[in-house]
Amino acid sequence: MTMQFKIYKEPELRDPYMVTGLPGIGYVAKLSVDYLIKELKAELFEELYSSSFPPYVLIKKDGTVELLKNEFYYWKDIKSKNDLIIFAGNTQAISSEGQYEISNEVLNRAEKFKVRKLFATAAYVTGRYLEKPRVYGAATEPELVEELKKYDVLPMDAGSISGTNGLLFGLAKLRGIQSICLLSETPGYMTPSGRVLADVKAAQALLEVLSKMLDIKIDMKPLEQEAKMAEDFVQKMEELERRWVEEMRKSVSPPPKDIYL
User: Fold this and answer.
1) What is the rounded CA–CA span in Å between residue 86 and residue 195?
2) Homologous superfamily of 3-251 in CATH?
3) What is the mean pLDDT of residues 55-71?
4) Which of 6, 200, 206, 241 is 20 to 30 A from 185, alpha carbon to alpha carbon?
5) Angle at CA 102, nearest 5°, toward 52 and 143?
């Protein structure tokens, strides 16, 4: 596996926190960090390219090509006690080796900038629609689990967290970096063509908790509007699915009551 790095600048950061989120189920983590980057106007300082990413490129609206990549952003605010590093991207590695290697590269940056605490984001799949998604959490130390409860986060007591979003959280413990993983409930719905639906509502629920834990203020109104539109779409999908099931039942003729051979 090979990796390439494109460094734009070397920021000087004060007691930074790190937030991570890559595409996963419902795009919950990606939506969360992308919105955070947009609202904070965070600045890109490094890009990571890897041969462990899927072998295709993206074509942008202007007709130009874009490679799959992961990115590091930073945000500074004189009113905040802690600066922020945000790790985002448009893909995850497709091999276990790649996910471990990239996770360790991210944690190398965390050590370099002396990150005080890492916040990983992920999805908690329920398989059913929820009016108000809940946020679950896990942590590297018992005292951090207690901290989660102050924000109405439900501590996980079983299960697993897969992919880079989970590995970053777990490997941080080996390096002595305090870490919390926040997981927002999502049904994990897919369209009839097999595409995963982006769960904006789940991302909103996660961001509401994360922003409080980071002690930062972001405008949630645009995301709330997107979440409402997405919710209406999901409800229409569920209604279409219900009607389809009913029609299928009607079209299947019941077997005769008496069969003689």
Assistant:
1) 27
2) PAC-like subunit (3.40.50.10900)
3) 95
4) 241
5) 145
Residue 115 corresponds to which amino acid?
Answer: V
pLDDT tens per residue, range 94-111: 999 999 999 999 999 999
d(CA 50, CA 224) in angstroms, rounded, equals 34
**How deeply is 249 buried, as exposed, middle or buried, from its count of CB atoms within 10 A (0-12, 13-18, 19+)?**
exposed
Token reading at 249 = 């039942």
The residue ranges of every structural domain in the chain are 3-251
pTM, two decimal places: 0.85
C-alpha–C-alpha distance, residues 135 and 153, integer Å = 5
Give the separation between CA 231 and CA 236, rounded to whole angstroms: 9
Q: How far apart are CA 121 and CA 63, in angstroms?
A: 32
Residue 139: enclosing H or E segment and its boundaries? strand 135-139
